Amino acid sequence: MKRKKKITPYLLILPSMFFLVLFIYYPAVKTLFKSLFLINSSNIPVKFVGMGNYRKLFSDETFLKSIVVTFEYALVVIPVTILMGYLLALISASGRRLSPVYELMYAMPMAVSMSVASVIFKLLLNGNLGFINHVFHLNIMWFTDKKYALWAIIIIGIWMGLGMTYIFLLSAVRSVSEELLEAATAEGAGIWQKVRYIYTPMISPTLFYLFCVNVGSALMMSGPVIILTQGGPDSSTSTIMYYMYQKGFYVYNYGLSYSAAVVGFIIGFTVILISFIWEKRGVHY
């Protein structure tokens, strides 16, 4: 009977572990393995080259630039998305008659696919006929000007990530104890004191979760680049994942593609690991 109780939990997680190994760990190990080989156009390893692919990768200025572009994108999109989602959640925390309307509006980006969102923004940010240029009287070629192309991708990234961030933070903000807020009001605390000393500590686990999710999403971003700019102009929007995609599906240099994927994973893993060190000090459960 005791042995059965010990085995039962492992049997329950066995199906999920099977799919986890099949779709996560096996592809990861296979990618790492193939990154050490010279791969032909049929995606078959033909010669072991060790770290040769990585040496070639880091001697490629386009790849080094893609790392910088990825971090520039992430350093803007992650904090702005979380801050905007937090602000909107605070504004709509108290239920009003029209709450379902603007809650639906704020969450709408979740229902729009990446490809559809990219096409929408391609029309909005069109340099000649775009709505944004027309309304604000601008003369910016958003997707062909090196100074603005990445900002156009950043705007799309923020809009796409805002819906999920808002939903999670709205739920977290509404779960804060009303008695605690009323006590703070009785003590004379203003809205910013409540945000700093009550809301933020209380919802810090949700903020930490969203930070980790947004880090992964930002470091893996490639869809809008593939659809709208193809990494241009002059590689100003080429991210690590787009570089991997380009080398694998355009040039058929699978060795560099696999190596770029491994480097992207290492960068993402390192950032998440550092964030978990902060989690021990800054997150209150």
From TrEMBL:
GO terms for cellular component: plasma membrane. Residues 67-275 form the ABC transmembrane type-1 domain. It is a multi-pass membrane protein. CDD domains: TM_PBP2. The chain crosses the membrane at residues 7-28, 73-92, 104-125, 148-169, 206-229, 249-278. It is found in: Cell membrane. Its main location: membrane. GO terms for biological process: transmembrane transport. Keywords: Cell membrane, Membrane, Transmembrane, Transmembrane helix, Transport. Belongs to the binding-protein-dependent transport system permease family. This is sn-glycerol 3-phosphate transport system permease protein. The lineage of its organism: Bacteria, Bacillati, Bacillota, Clostridia, Lachnospirales.
